[in-house]
Each structure stands twice: as structure tokens, then as C-alpha cells.
Amino acid sequence: MSHLVAPSVLAADFANLQRDIELVNNSKADWFHVDIMDGMFVPNISFGFPVVKAIKKHATKPLDVHLMIVDPDRYLKQFAEAGAYSITVHYEACPHLHRTVQAIKELGCKASVAINPHTPVSLLKDIIADLDMILVMSVNPGFGGQKFIEHTYTKLAEVKELAKAANPNLLIEVDGGVDDTNYQALLSAGASVLVAGNSVFSAQDPSLAITTLKQAQV
């Protein structure tokens, strides 16, 4: 299966959001990656349901919604109704993770779990068979434009190995510092979904930046 590319809306120009949504619609991107932050789980606040609904109204590609919030169970239904195709919750934010994952699936969305840079991959072994995707954070979540954490390559390889027997169709997403200097190595390590924010929307030609990430060969 070819890998997927999901430009991160967090790095878009919010004064020209519809323009940037159309840009992604017309590009070789596969998904929109939508980061939701509450100022508590991470030290930043992004946007909520109205903006997700606005993106969904214009987007022609699925919304990959990443919840960086405490107690995400409270809002799963609202994000599903706002247009999420896939919902990612953080391992670190969910004390009853199996129940949360089942709730996401019952809402008709793909279920994904994210792990922060300090969280060991081994903690996912009891949930990996139930997931559609695992998101490996390659920066500490909260802000765009951070420096890529090199240990991410090892973690991607560990997730890939864990998934071999338990869930061979698992998607492995990587988010944070993904650009034209490391995307090939990330795919080689095991990533199958590339989230890219600044490297796309800050590029002189964002559409070309997306094409470059999409055309990578492993």
C-alpha cells in the first residue's frame, strides 16, 4: 500500500483558511490533519467544533482529527458529528483506553492512539489489535515548528514490529518535524502516514511540497 500524506491545518493561514483547504483539495494529499488542543493536556489552544465543521464544509478529503485534550471521551460524539473520519486520542490522556477506542468505532470513525515521545511503544501491546492507526509523536505536542526527535526512527520500527503479528494492516502515522530531509528515512523505519505542517504551508510551493512527500519511494 502506498503511504499517505496529511497536511496539518494548524500550520495553514487562518486568515485564508478556505484558500488553503482548496490547495490541499487540489493536491496529492490524502487527508487533512486537524490538531485539537485544550491548553491543559498541551500548553497551547487551537480550535474546536466550529472550525472543524468549517473545514469539513470545504474539504473533499477525510479529516484526520488529533485530540490533544484531557478526557477526550467527553467530546468524541461532537467531533464525529463535526466531520471526523479518524479520531486520535492520546494514550497518556485515557485511563480506560479500550473503552475510548470502542466508543470511537461505535461512532463510525477510525480509531487511533497517539503516544508522546517519552511513552514506550511496549505500552501499546494490549490495544494494538483493536486500532486502525497509531500516531508516533516526533516532537512534544503543543506547537508547530519544533525540532524533530531522532529516537522516533527506533519507535516507528518498534511499532511496525509489534503490529506484524497483532495487526498487519495497522497504519503508522508520524507527526512533528516531518520535511524533505527525513521523510524517506521515516517511511523506511515504518511510517505509512506522514503529517506535515510547516514544511508544507511555509513552502514557496505548498502543492509541490506535498507532491514531494507523496512521491517518496521506499
From TrEMBL:
Annotated metabolic or biological route of this protein: Carbohydrate degradation
SUPFAM superfamilies reported for this sequence: Ribulose-phoshate binding barrel
Keyword terms, alphabetized: Carbohydrate metabolism, Cobalt, Isomerase, Manganese, Metal-binding, Zinc
One GO BP annotation of this record: pentose catabolic process
EC number(s) from the headed UniProt entry: 5.1.3.1
Cofactor: record remark: Binds 1 divalent metal cation per subunit.
Reaction catalyzed: D-ribulose 5-phosphate = D-xylulose 5-phosphate
Sequence positions that bind substrate: 8, 66, 142-145, 175-177
Pfam families: Ribul_P_3_epim (PF00834)
Active site, UniProt feature: 35 (proton acceptor), 175 (proton donor)
GO cellular component annotations of the record: cytoplasm
Transmembrane listed as a keyword: no
Binding site for a divalent metal cation: 33, 35, 66, 175
InterPro entries the record matches: Aldolase_TIM (IPR013785), Ribul_P_3_epim (IPR026019), Ribul_P_3_epim-like (IPR000056), RibuloseP-bd_barrel (IPR011060)
Single GO molecular function: D-ribulose-phosphate 3-epimerase activity
Cofactor entry: Co(2+); Fe(2+); Mn(2+); Zn(2+)
Family: Belongs to the ribulose-phosphate 3-epimerase family.
PANTHER family noted in UniProt: RIBULOSE-5-PHOSPHATE-3-EPIMERASE
Purpose: Catalyzes the reversible epimerization of D-ribulose 5-phosphate to D-xylulose 5-phosphate.
Stated name of the protein: Ribulose-phosphate 3-epimerase
Protein species of origin: Mucilaginibacter terrenus
Source lineage: Bacteria, Pseudomonadati, Bacteroidota, Sphingobacteriia, Sphingobacteriales
Name of the encoding gene: rpe
